[in-house]
Amino acid sequence: MTSTALRSRAWKLLETVTTPLLPSDYLDLVSPLRAGADLRGRIEAVHPETGDAATVVIRPGRGWRGHTAGQYVRIGVDVDGVRLWRAYSITSPTDRRDGRVTITVKAIPDGKVSNHLVRRAKPGTLIQLDQPTGDFVMPQAKPARVLYLTAGSGITPVMGMLRDTEFDDVVMVHCAPRPQDVIFRNELHDLAADKKLRLTEVHTDTDGTLDIARLDELVPDWAERETWACGPAGLLDAAEAHWTEHGVQQRLHTERFRPGIVVAGDGGEVTFSATGKTVDADGGTPLLDIGEEAGVLMPSGCRMGICFGCVTPLKAGAVRDLRTGEITEAEPGVLIQTCVSAAAGPCDIER
Amino acid sequence: MTAIDPTAHLTAEQIEELGRELDAIRDEVIAGRGEKDAAYIRKVISVQRKLELASRGVLLFSFFPPAWLIGTAGLSVAKIMDNMEIGHNVLHGQWDWMRDPKIHSTTWEWDHVSPSEQWKHSHNELHHTYTNVIGKDNDLGYGIMRVDEDQKWHPFHLGQPLWNFINACFFEYGIAAYDLELGKNLHKRRRKNPEFRARAKAVGRKIRRQVLKDYVIHPLLSGPSFLTTLAATFTANLVRNIWSHSVIMCGHFPEGVQVFERRSIKGETRGQWYLRQMMGSANISGSKAMHFMTGNLSHQIEHHLFPDLPSNRYAEVAVKVRALFEKYELEYVTGPLPRQVLSAWHKVFRLSLPNKKPKVETPDREQELVAA
Description:
Chain B: It holds the Pfam family FA_desaturase. In chain A, 23% of the residues lie in helices and 32% in strands. By secondary structure, chain A is α/β, with parallel strands linked by helices.
C-alpha cells in the first residue's frame, strides 16, 4: 500500500473514532491555525493609523498561500456574536519575515465590521480567512513610470504595492479630507524625502474634490504612466472616462471596494436562481409562498418560523423578517427562513 | 382533554393580547442576542469535547476500577451535554443567527442514532407545531402509550409501564424508530416506499457508525481494557438515555398538562397557538446545574413558546413568562425533578388501565371564543 493510501485509511479510522464529529473538530480546540485546518488567522496587534483607521496585524494559519501586492483578503469576524465577512486590501509587503500580514481598516459610519476592527478588536482573537485574491496587481514586466491615484482608504492596496516593489519613477496623487486623515502619512513623507516617491496630497476639505482635469497640471505625463487607481466610485468613474477619452484606458487599473450597495425597500423582484424564475413580490408575503406560487420547489415545515425546515441561501439583495422587521442582507453563507421573510428590495433566493 | 377547560375564562381579545405580550418578550431577547451568548455556546461545546476526550482517555485504563468509574461518569455527562444543551438546541436553529457554519442547524450532527435531519422533521416541525394535539403530535405517548383519558383503551396498554421502561433504557433507538415512523411504515406496502427506504438506510448507517465507535473501536483501542470499556460505553449510553427520557417525560406528561383535539387547532391564531404551548408543557424547578444538564428543557414552557431562542436565555425569560401566567390566571405546571418524573410515571400506570369516559364533555374552545 502506498503511504497516501495508508494515510487515508488511518484518517478514515480516526473519523470512526470521533464520529459523528470529525477529527478536526477536536484538533481545532488545541491548534486552530495548524496545516490542514480551515483557514483562520489570529489578530496579534491593532495599531492606530489615524483617528478612524487602524492596521490589524494577523498571523495567518499554516494553510495561507501568500499574496501578491495589491490583492485583498476576505475575513470573517464575529461582531456581537455574528460572523460577518468583509474584504480588505493587504497592506503588508509579500516578504515580511515573520509571516504576518496586515490589513488597514478605515471605520466607515455605521460600518459594523470596520468599527469593530478599528475600535474594539482585541489581540488574540481568532478570525476566519479566505486565500488572498484580486487582480489589482503589478504586471510581470516592470513599468518604467507609475502613477498611483488614490483617495481615502483607497490607499491601502497601493500601500501594499509601495511597500513591496520599488520603481524608478513613481508619482502618487492622494486625496483625503485633511492632512491628519491621510493614512500612512509619515511613511509616505519618508518615502518622498528619500526620493522614492513624488507625492501630491489633495486635501478635499480645503481644496475641494479632485477635478480629474487637474491631473494635467499635477502630473503632466499622466497619460504615459501605468496607473493604479483606487478610491470612491466617483473618482474611479471620472478616471475611467478621462483615460478613455484620451485613448489610454489600457494603462488604467482600478479597484472598487463596494461593487453594489443593497438598498432595503419594501418588496421587489425575486429571482429563484436555481430554477431560473423571476417574480414580483410585495413586502408582506413570505418568500416561501412567493416561491410556491411561482411553482418553485421550496422546502417547508411549520410555516411559522419555528422549525427551521425552510432555510435557504440568500444569494443577493435583502429580506425583512416579518416578525421583527429585521433586515438581512445577502452575504456568502447567509441562510434565511423563507416562511417568515419577505423581499426587502430585489433579491435572489437559491432555489 | 380535561373535563374543564382551564382557559375558558379568557376572552378572544385577552388571548391575542397575551400573544402580543409574548411576542414582545421574544423580540427583546432577539434584539439583545450577542457576543455573550455566542461565547456561551462555544464554551459549552469546547467543554463537552474536552470532557469526552478526557473520559475516553481515562477509559483506556478502565480495567482499573476507579478509572472505570471516573471515565464512565465523565462520558455519561459528555453524552448528556451533547444531546441536551448542545444537540437539541443547535438543531432547533437557536444558534443559526451566529452564522457560524460549524454551529448551525443545517450542519450539526449529534452523538445519537437518529440522524439530525430526520429528528428535526419529527421534532421541530411536527411536535413543536402540533404540540399535544392528539393524532397530530406523536410525542404524546410516542405511539406506544395512552396518555389521556379520552384516548381509546386497548389491552396492549396494560403493558405500557413496561414499554415505557424499555423505551427509557434504549431511548435513542426509540427516537430513531419514532422519527422513521416505523410502526406506520412496517406495512408491506409502505416498506417499499423509496423515500422510506432511503430514510431507513440513513438510520442504519448512523447506527452502524455509532455502534462501531462505542462498542468496537473504543474498546479495541483500550486493549486489555476491552471489556471494561465496552461496559463503560454501554453504561454511559444507558445513563444518557434514562436521563433524557426522564427529562422529556417531564415536559408534557405530568398531571395538569393539557392535551388538545384536532378540531381545536383549526384556524388557530397566534395567541391561541401560544396559549396551547403554555397549557401543553410543564417545567422542572431546580438549580442552575440541573437546568444545564436538562439542556434547559427544564424550561420546557419557555422552550415551547420560543423554540428558537438561545437556551441560555430561557431562565431570564421564565420570570416574565411566569408573570404572564399569573396575570392571565393560568396554571404554570412545575416542580422538582423527582416529583415531576413520579407524576409522569403515575399517569403512565394509571392510564394503562381502562377508565370511564369523563362525565363532562370538553367545551369546544372555538365555540367558547365565539360566544365570548
